[in-house]
Every structure is written in structure tokens, then in C-alpha cells.
Specification:
heterodimer; A: alpha/beta; Spore Coat Polysaccharide Biosynthesis Protein SpsA, Chain A; Rossmann fold; 2 domains; five-stranded mixed beta sheet; five-stranded parallel beta sheet; 13% strand; B: alpha/beta; nine-stranded mixed beta sheet; two-stranded antiparallel ribbon; 31% helix
Chain lengths: 565, 336
């Protein structure tokens, strides 16, 4: 008893020849179907190379185009020829010209000999699998597909739309439950001959000839009628990517294929010399007599598909430029934004770095330069501190920074005096943790030695900017983790507020802050705010800041007497 | 994109093609080996001027990748480079003394040659200081890439130009004929690029890297474009619009994914910052044959006079394509 190979060939005939000879050398008869698209001259030359090999036969040629009936017709004729010509064949294995046997032929033969009644064919009902390409799953079986998907896509799509509109539904022949699966199967003589000799075959053929991609459903469906024991998996290692196109194996997959323990792999790049040499060579190292284990290859390919469909979050590059809302994460990793903290606390940045073990920058969007950690002129990824470069694309500056420092959490200061271009982006970014002490921008003004008229103007400007920014933070679109305190509120219990923020950042967590940052001396600040109010500029973002305590070191002024006339 | 605009782009495409037809008269055939070209061969097109020192490694690099024929235009070299090229078995050479600038920086000549010889071939259009890196380039030949692109019905392959530079002053990067330029200039910037989209042509516009960081830090909008589409399955109706930054028809510029995924892309390593640049920059400044009034070369000369060093402590040293992949400077996409 042996295994018969039905091989569908359409390109790289040289490689196909190599593989055919390999099968024959392993005492497996081969029936070859050469695609009608191969011109006669090449076909005849190809056939003549097998003169004298009684184990190789050629079946009637059909035109095989992807997704059409030709592929099924070809395998039907070839299988028929196989069953008639080689009575010793018990299993028939359907392979293509770009399939490569990975294990010695006798291992496959003995593996199948131990399972004489088993049909290896992947076969699942349409409702249960997500393998569909082009949004057609159940409709494959209920619509008609007279146009080629590859060459006449326009008509294909239009005709599908038209049928949907008209509500056309084909009747599925009685007794059939549509199943789908990989088109590479290995069936027993019993099952295969039952399919081919079925009295209803003409009905089925007529039906399936108008089904979309019948080679993935014809045998898969009909096997269910006759098989006593279906093992629903393909013995051929064949992975498909998101467009339904098979992944291709190259020389650098050699070790991976070796370790897969699969019998046959597809598809092999025709110029992968090393693969063909290794696996078709005489000294093909015998693998353990183990079950096929394509797990690792599966993972690599599904990762590749994931990379293609979802990409790496927070990366913008020449192959990935997502439309707004499709970024799948604006940035690569979580980061923290502190607004008003470095104004309220002395030496806040070094303190924060010590307390959290993260990278702490100053005001990255400061007007004169990006205040990178340690005030370096360049940073990770060779980001420059030049404000012109940064402001040329402020959002890219942030995404690059976060991307370049993956693995190390970034913190930076932000405030109304900075370039506000990223204000909305950070609010919208789920990776951002934003803590705001509103109104803290007034503290540097309070400490500065400037004319009050200027201060008043500046305060009005900053307050307007911060208020707009707060609107962004409070918008329903904001996705960041946002905490907002007014200055007055924060000062009441600063450590408690700090602790909650820090706990979220620290990886270890749970540690109480042992060292508190020092709050800047605010005596006189209430008075300063009151003065602003008195000048008609109403600073409201700080909350209700008490005017008292009155300045302590200043002597209470003697009241000037009212003049009474 | 309305009908009117796409019609205008069509007219523009036709204009560039007619222009190349006119400019072909500037080319005189020097060595013709084009009858060697087989139907599936990958072809390389380039314009060369006084690059003799770079040629041996350039040819070797692309031969090793699997380029089968080089179709080159020599623009008035006087360093013996043309004679060297003429002796190579897989080079066809044309010469011209005409203006590089007025031939759209050589693109008119290349467009004509592509139209004549490249129809149906995968073509690479690169400068002699640009070296293509693509996923798996250390184990898979260029043919594997183009076969895969064919199977996926993809017609063009996008890359980013990565400027490579030495550590220390640029004068110290002495390059010898035949040497791998990235032995002397192995450093690059890994993450300071900015990208925007050109809605007219549908391409991305990438800027940044060391040139923006050092030479254009005060006027980043003038920094050179780094987006390049050098590998295209050519059709005689196609044309490059500006250098290899973008093409017409516009569909060829869609080498990026807009819905969050990553399309496979590569990198062009740019061996520009070698010792020879200091001299060349001065010469090019006098010749005034480069884009935007040779603004770029002006910036270099000024920068070199300030003795500016490009290298900084965050520069990355080039190892291989996998490193670029991890850094996000190129992508495997769904090729595995």
C-alpha cells in the first residue's frame, strides 16, 4: 500500500520536476496536472523529461485560475486517473508544484499506513471560521460568480452587489452542508472514489462550478457525506496572510521548517536553492517519527500579519502613517505630564526623578528650547532641543520622544507659557497621565521682578491659555488619565495629591513618599492675587486663595487719614 | 480628488514624458549592452558625476543584491569614472555634457531610458551614494523581494533615506576606492524625523535626521526630503516627479498604510558625509546645479566652516536591517 501524489503544476516546472522525482524515488506514483496556461511547447518538453518513468502520469489539462472551478476539475481528473492506474494506492495526496516534502517519503507512507481509514482534510462550516476574503463567507455558496476576481474585479464586485440587491439566492443541493478549508488534502481511496463516483456528482459539480473558490469547499463539503473518520487538518503546512495569499518560504526558514515536523510545506520560493537541496537531498536527516508541529511557524506568520494590519503603536514611519483616529495608540508607551508642579515646588524635577525612577524633563515645549532632562542639547534618537525643529512638528516631537525611549517612562512639565500645539493631543492620548495644578503659573509671576502692568497682561494671557487647555482636558474626547486641582485646593493637602499621582507612575508602587518636595514660600501670594483683582484682572484658576496671612515681615502701614472737606 | 485635479496630474505626467523625449537628444550612447537584458532582470538607473571613487563598491553592492544590468548616465565626469564604467560587463552607459539642473536633476534622462528599456522590469533608481536595505536583505536576494511584491500585486516599494555620518569631523572620514562607506561613516539618527502628507500626490514627505538637526536647525522647513520610492515595477507610462521622492500616477506613492498597519518598507543608507563632501560641496556651490539654488550645499559649506560635528552621543551605530526594523526606521510588514 502506498500514497499517490496528485500534483497541480503551473509555474517553475524545473522545481516541480525535482519534487516529482523525489516522490517517485520514494516509490509514490505521481499524477501531474499541468495548467493549460503553460504553452504547449514547454508542456511537451516537460512531459518528455519523464519518458520511461511508469510511475508518472499526466492528466487532462484544464485552465486553472485562482478562485475558479478549473482547479477542482483538474484535481478530479487527476485523482480519477490515479485511482484507475495505481490500484496499490490507498491515500491520495493533493499537492502543488511549489510544495516541498520536508520529511522522508517513507515517513509519510508509514504515517498514513498506520491511519488507513483517516481522511486528512481541513473542513469547517462557514459560520465557525473567520477565513473570509473580500467579505464573502456564506455568500460564496448562495451567489453566482461568473467573473474572474483577478482580471474582472469591477464586474465581479458589481455582479455581487446586484445579486445582493435583487436578493438572489442559489439553492444548495439537498444533503449538502457547506464546509470550507485548506485546498490541500489527503483522502483515502474509499472516500475519494465515493466522491468521484457519486450518482449525484453531476448535480454537485454543476452547483460548485459557480461557487466562489470551489477548491476550498468542494472536497471539504463532499467528504462530510462519505468519510468515516475525518481529521480536520491539512498535512500540508500552508499559511495564508490577510489577503488570502500563501506565505512563502525562503532559505532562511530552513531551521524553522526542519523543526516543524510537517510532511509537506507550501509555498516555497522557486529560487530557494538551499531548501530544495536540503529537503530533497539523499541524506535528508530523518526527523523523529513525531506528529507535525507547525506552532512556531504559525506564530511567526500570525505576528507578521498582525504587524501588517495593526502595526506598532506610536510609530510613524514611511510605511505607517495612520489617519487621525486610526493610530491604534497615539504614542508607544505611558508617560506623565505635570502642569504647575515645578512652579509650586522647589527643585521638583530632581525630586520626581528620585521618587519615581523615571526620566524627568523640564518644559519640553518651552518657547526658547526643549528643556530635555539635564538640559542636554540632544536626547534619545538624536532629538534636538531646538525649538524651531520641535515647533515644526510638535506632535512628532512627542511621539518620537516616547517611541525613542520605550522601556523608560518619561515625565515632563507643561504649562500655559509653552507651545500649546500638543495640548489637545495629550488629552486625547490614553497613554498620557496628566496632573494639573491650575493657576500655578501665577507663582513665577508673583516672584518675578517686573512692572505690575506687564504682569497683569501676562497673567491675563496665561489664564486664557490655561482655561482653553482645561476645556480640552475636560472634553468628552479626552482619553488621558487626568487629575485637576486648583492651586488653593492642592495646597491644602499636597502630599496626599502627590502620593496618588506618584503611585500610578512607580512600577513598584505602595511605597510611601519619604521625602517631600518643598513648597515655594507663598506668603504674600494671596495679596498678589488680590492686587490683580483690584486691577480688574480676575485670576480665578487658582481657586479661592486667602488674602491672609498678611505679609509678616512688612510693617503694617499707617493709615492715611481721610481728608474731609 | 476631483476629476479636474486628476486630469491636471495626468497632464503633468504627460508633460514630464514629453520633456524626457526632448531631453533624450542630450544623451549620447557610449557603451550599449542592453541586448543582454533578459525579461525578468532587475535594472538599475542612475546619473553619475565624478563619482569614480565610489563606483566599485556601488556596483558590487547592487550586483550582490541581484541587479542584472546598470543603465547609467555620465554627466560630464572628468575623473575617469566613465571609462571605468565602460569596462564593466553589465553596464550600459550614456554621456552628456548638458545641464543637470535643466534636465530636472537628471530625471529627464532617466525617464527616457526607463521608458525605452524598463517597461515590465523591476527598476531601481538610486544615486551612487545610496544603498538599499530591505527586510531580510542579508538572506534573501532582491529578486525574492520583487517576486513577493509581484505576488501581492504591489507595484512600488517605499524607503526612507538615512543619512550616515562619521564620528568626529567629516574631514576625518577618509574613504578609499572599493571600501564599504559605512565602515568610515556608520552613524545615524534614529528618531528625529517628521512626516507630513502631500495630498496632491498622495506621498509622504519626510524630513529630519542629521541634516535637519545640524544644518537646518533654524529653518527646518528647508531641510531636504528623505522619502524615496526607488524600486518600482516600471511601466512606460510612469514618470518620477521630483527626484525619486514621488511618482505619477499617484497610486504608486501609496507605499504607506493609513489605517494603523505597517506596509513593508526599506531604507536607503546615504553615504554622503564622507571626506569628499567638503570638496564637492564647494564645487557644487560654484556649479549651481542643485535643487533650490543649491541651498543645501550652502548650508554644508557654512556648517563645515563652523567645524560642526554631526555625531552626538545619542547617535546610533549601524549594525544591520534588523536594527533598523526594531528602531522603526523600516518595516517587515507582513513579509516573514
Amino acid at each position: 500500500m502506498t500514497v499517490g501524489i496528485v500534483m497541480l503544476v503551473h509555474t517553475s516546472l524545473e522545481r516541480a520536476e525535482q519534487v516529482i522525482r523525489h516522490w517517485v524515488a520514494g516509490r509514490c506514483p505521481v499524477v501531474v496536472h499541468v495548467d493549460k496556461n503553460v504553452d504547449d511547447e514547454r508542456h511537451d518538453a516537460f512531459v518528455s523529461r519523464f519518458d520511461g518513468l511508469s510511475n508518472v502520469r499526466f492528466s487532462k489539462r484544464h485552465r486553472c485560475e485562482w478562485g475558479t472551478w478549473g482547479l477542482v476539475a483538474a484535481s478530479q481528473d487527476a485523482s480519477q486517473l490515479m485511482l484507475e492506474t495505481f490500484p496499490e494506492v490507498r491515500h491520495v495526496y493533493l499537492a502543488s508544484g511549489s510544495c516541498l516534502p520536508l520529511r522522508p517519503v517513507n515517513e509519510l507512507v508509514s504515517y498514513l499506513a498506520k491511519r488507513p481509514r483517516t481522511d486528512f482534510i481541513e473542513s469547517a462550516t462557514t459560520a465557525d471560521v473567520p477565513w473570509t476574503i473580500g467579505g464573502l463567507d456564506e455568500e460564496r455558496f448562495t451567489l453566482r460568480f461568473p467573473f474572474s476576481w483577478k482580471r474582472q474585479r469591477y464586474f465581479f464586485d458589481k455582479y455581487v452587489a446586484l445579486q445582493r440587491r435583487l436578493g438572489v439566492r442559489r439553492k444548495i443541493p439537498a444533503g449538502l452542508v457547506p464546509h470550507m478549508g485548506s485546498q490541500w488534502w489527503c483522502l483515502t481511496r474509499q472516500t475519494l472514489s465515493a466522491i468521484l463516483q457519486d450518482p449525484e456528482r453531476e448535480t454537485y459539480d454543476r452547483y460548485f462550478s459557480k461557487v466562489w473558490i470551489p477548491d476550498e469547499s468542494y472536497y471539504q463539503t463532499l467528504t462530510r457525506l462519505y468519510s468515516t473518520h475525518i481529521e480536520s487538518r491539512s498535512l500540508t503546512l500552508s499559511k495564508f496572510d490577510f489577503q488570502g495569499k500563501p506565505h512563502i518560504f525562503y532559505d532562511d526558514h530552513l531551521q524553522l521548517l526542519r523543526r516543524s515536523d510537517c510532511f509537506v510545506a507550501r509555498k516555497i520560493w522557486p529560487r530557494a536553492d538551499k531548501l530544495y537541496e536540503t529537503f530533497l537531498g539523499d541524506n535528508a536527516a530523518a526527523m523523529k517519527a513525531s506528529e507535525p508541529n507547525p506552532g512556531k511557524i504559525d506564530r511567526i506568520f500570525s505576528r507578521a500579519v498582525d504587524r501588517r494590519i495593526r502595526g506598532r503603536s506610536g510609530l510613524v514611519m514611511q510605511g505607517r502613517f495612520p489617519n487621525r483616529g486610526w493610530e491604534n495608540g497615539l504614542t508607544a508607551a505611558p508617560y506623565s505630564v505635570f502642569e504647575g508642579f515645578s512652579e509650586l515646588f522647589e527643585n521638583f524635577e530632581p525630586w520626581l526623578a528620585r521618587a519615581t525612577g523615571t526620566r524627568v524633563h523640564g518644559h519640553l515645549y518651552a518657547p526658547d528650547r526643549a528643556e530635555l532632562d539635564g538640559r542636554q542639547t540632544t536626547f534619545a534618537g538624536a532629538l534636538s532641543d531646538s525649538s524651531a525643529l520641535r515647533d515644526y512638528d510638535p506632535k512628532a516631537f512627542l511621539t518620537s520622544l516616547i517611541w525613542n525611549t520605550r522601556g523608560e517612562r518619561q515625565c515632563f512639565q507643561f504649562g500655559p507659557a509653552d507651545n500649546q500645539a500638543v495640548g489637545f493631543d495629550i488629552a486625547y492620548d490614553p497613554n498620557a497621565q496628566i496632573s494639573v495644578i491650575t493657576g500655578a503659573w501665577a507663582i513665577p509671576l508673583f516672584q518675578s521682578n517686573r512692572n505690575f502692568a506687564d504682569l497683569r497682561l501676562e497673567a491675563a494671557r496665561l489664564q486664557k491659555i490655561e482655561s482653553d487647555h482645561l476645556d480640552d482636558l475636560r472634553s468628552i474626547h479626552a482619553k488621558a488619565k487626568i487629575r485637576i486641582w486648583s492651586l488653593a485646593e492642592f495646597i491644602e493637602s499636597p502630599m496626599e495629591a502627590l502620593q496618588t499621582v506618584i503611585d500610578e507612575i512607580s512600577v513598584a508602587g505602595g511605597r510611601r513618599l519619604s521625602e517631600a518636595p518643598r513648597i515655594i514660600d507663598l506668603s504674600g501670594f494671596g495679596r498678589f492675587l488680590q492686587n490683580l483683582k483690584n486691577q480688574g484682572m480676575h485670576p480665578y484658576l487658582m481657586g479661592d486663595f486667602p488674602v491672609d496671612p498678611a505679609p509678616q515681615n512688612a510693617r503694617p502701614k499707617a493709615r492715611r487719614p481721610y481728608l474731609v472737606r | 480628488m476631483g476629476f479636474w485635479q486628476s486630469y491636471r496630474l495626468r497632464l503633468q505626467r504627460k508633460r514630464w514624458r514629453i520633456r524626457s523625449l526632448r531631453k533624450r537628444r542630450e544623451l549620447s550612447l557610449y557603451v550599449d549592452r542592453t541586448e543582454q537584458i533578459e525579461p525578468d532582470d532587475i535594472l538599475l538607473f542612475s546619473t553619475i558625476r565624478n563619482e569614480d571613487i565610489r563606483l566599485p563598491y556601488f556596483l558590487k553592492y547592487y550586483r550582490d543584491l541581484g541587479v542584472r544590468h546598470f543603465l547609467l548616465v555620465d554627466n560630464d565626469s572628468d575623473d575617469g569614472g566613465a571609462e571605468y564604467l565602460a569596462r564593466q560587463p553589465d553596464v550600459s552607459l550614456w554621456r552628456t555634457r548638458a545641464s543637470y539642473k535643466r534636465a530636472r536633476f537628471g530625471m529627464d534622462w532617466i525617464t527616457w531610458l526607463q521608458r525605452k528599456y524598463a517597461h515590465g522590469h523591476w527598476t531601481l533608481v538610486v544615486d551612487p551614494d545610496e544603498f538599499l536595505v530591505y527586510p531580510f536583505c542579508d538572506t534573501r536576494p532582491l529578486k525574492a523581494l520583487t517576486d513577493w511584491l509581484d505576488a501581492s500585486s504591489i507595484r512600488s516599494f517605499g524607503t526612507m533615506l538615512i543619512d550616515m555620518y562619521p564620528k568626529g569631523p567629516i574631514e576625518s572620514a577618509e574613504y578609499e576606492r572599493g571600501q564599504d562607506p559605512f565602515e568610515v561613516a556608520p552613524w545615524f539618527d534614529s528618531g528625529n524625523y517628521t512626516i507630513s502628507r502631500n495630498f496632491m500626490f498622495g506621498n509622504l514627505w519626510i524630513q529630519g535626521g542629521p541634516r535637519a538637526r545640524v544644518f537646518f536647525r533654524d529653518e527646518p522647513e528647508r531641510a531636504p526630503a528623505l522619502n524615496k520610492i526607488p524600486l518600482v515595477k516600471w511601466d512606460r507610462r510612469y514618470t518620477y516627479v521630483r527626484s525619486t521622492h514621488m511618482l505619477l500616477p499617484r497610486g504608486l506613492n501609496l507605499v504607506y498604510d493609513e489605517w494603523g498597519g505597517e506596509k513593508m518598507s526599506g531604507a536607503l543608507l546615504h553615504a554622503k558625509f564622507l571626506q569628499s563632501l567638503t570638496e564637492k560641496a564647494r564645487e557644487e556651490l560654484e556649479r549651481k546645479q542643485h535643487f533650490a539654488n543649491s541651498k543645501e550645499y550652502k548650508a554644508y559649506v557654512e556648517g563645515f566652516e563652523r567645524r560642526e560635528e554631526i555625531w552626538c552621543k545619542w547617535s546610533e551605530k549601524y549594525i544591520n536591517w534588523r536594527q533598523l526594523e526594531i528602531l522603526g526606521l523600516m518595516s517587515k510588514g507582513n513579509w516573514a
